[in-house]
Amino acid sequence: MKVLYLEDESLLGRIVKESLESRDCDIDWFIDGKQARQALARAGEYDIAVLDVQMPGEDGFTIGNRLRKEFPTLPILYLTARTQAKDVLSGFESGGNDYVRKPFSMEELLVRMRNLVSMREGTASSTSSAPAPIAIGAPQSSHEEFYSFGRFTFDYPNLRLVFQPASGPPKEHSLSHREAELLRLFLRARGQSVIERKTILLELWHDDGFFNSRNLDVYVRKLRSMLEDDPAVRILTLRGVGYRFVVER
Hints:
single chain, Arc Repressor Mutant, subunit A, globular, Rossmann fold, 5-stranded parallel β-sheet, 2 domains, 4-stranded antiparallel β-sheet, alpha/beta
């Protein structure tokens, strides 16, 4: 993996850089937001960005938000000492795909990095120690990665959701990788009476803990805001159980 790494603590930064390099990673380490900005123009060269949140100058969330806008498919993993749910949710809302809380083990960090990169490439990570994802619906072949529902078309490989109104120009949304994964999961579950929260969390995050559960709420709200252009398409909440994806035409 080629990694963009942002960390202002010199000792920790050196340990992480040397540890990842010993595991066949190529690391570009920056100690502040100003330095990192110099790398943004070529961020497309990286497989993943690993960003410390609390940085002098521009913090990790600000850098991550910039990266997400310029490189919508680049996986972003935040390193944070913050434990409040609202802080973690802020990270996801700024475009993050995952987070690791300090202090962390190098094994956990590497597994999470490899999982994100593998998800981006559309393959399962053979190095992950996380539970195998639960399959939902029929296996998808390459020609099934384009979906049409209601007045929407969903181009999963290119992370694009397009709404076609009855008249006028189409409206296009660029999705993050996680948003696209969640929408595809809902579409694969069409016709089911319910898709359980636990199933979604294990499928997409390999963990059904509290923080990931709150993170799921954020992504469901984002998808609902995109889908509200067509009243026939809805994500229904079945309180205490999960969701149902409804397309009425």
